[in-house]
Amino acid sequence: MAWTAPMTAVANTVFTAAQFNLHVRDNLNETAVAKATQISSIFVGNGLNSIVERLPQVDNVATSETTASTTYTDLATVGPSVTTNTGSRALVFIRAAFENSGANNGTFMSWDVTGATTFAASENQAVNFAGLPAAQRQRLGSHYMISSLTPGSNTFTMKYRVTAGTGTFLARQIAVIPF
Q1: Which residue, 4, 124, 149, 166, is most buried by CB atoms nearer than 10 A?
Q2: What is the model's pLDDT at position 43?
Q3: pLDDT over 80 at 58, yes or no
Q4: Rounded Cα gap, residues 64 and 101, in angstroms
């Protein structure tokens, strides 16, 4: 159903049941209150006079795990990862505590997208540190507004890499607010 511009009332004319249903009942059924089906959902515009319900998602992995990969990879426990329906945009938040076994080595965490959209983890959406003493733990996070998604079901998964040494990652989290 679509929202309809309300009619203009004219004095001394009959307001029919069909007019009431179209201009009042049907329009009220197009509001966020009427469309809400999930707790904590948000509503976003998906066209002229049209809204859709979206549900922000979050996932956590507490386990401490390592990698020596110099290209983005999964850890033993993949993720964290969330799947959600998006429009062409989403706000992605990532955070973790991480360290590197060697002094001055770069340690990176990023994320990729699969599903309706496919793109790889990269430095463009990475959190990283370098130039610290060996085994100096940092807790870092960041957020990214992505505006090039293909609308539909998209999965966002954190990925990890180092420039050298062994990176240790723990208390990992990804959260996605779909638009």
Answers
A1: 149
A2: 93
A3: yes
A4: 14
Residue with tokens 């979050």: 58
Whether the CB-CB separation of 96 and 151 falls below 8 Å is answered with: no
| Residues, the chain | 179
Q: Which domains, ranges and CATH numbers included, belong to the chain?
A: 54-178 (2.60.120.760)
pTM (two decimals): 0.86
pLDDT > 90? residue 148? yes
Q: CB-based contacts of 23: which residues, under 8 Å, 6+ apart?
A: 4, 6, 7
**Torsion sign over Cα 100, 102, 106, 111:** negative
Please tell me the distance from the alpha carbon of residue 3 to that of residue 26, in angstroms, as a whole number: 7
The Cα 22–Cα 42 span in angstroms is 26
CA distances from 64 to 46, 67, 99, 101, 162 (A): 40, 11, 11, 14, 16
C-alpha distances in angstroms, 131 versus 20, 22, 103, 105, 138? 68, 65, 7, 6, 12
Centre a 10 Å sphere on the Cβ of residue 57 and count the other Cβ atoms it contains.
19
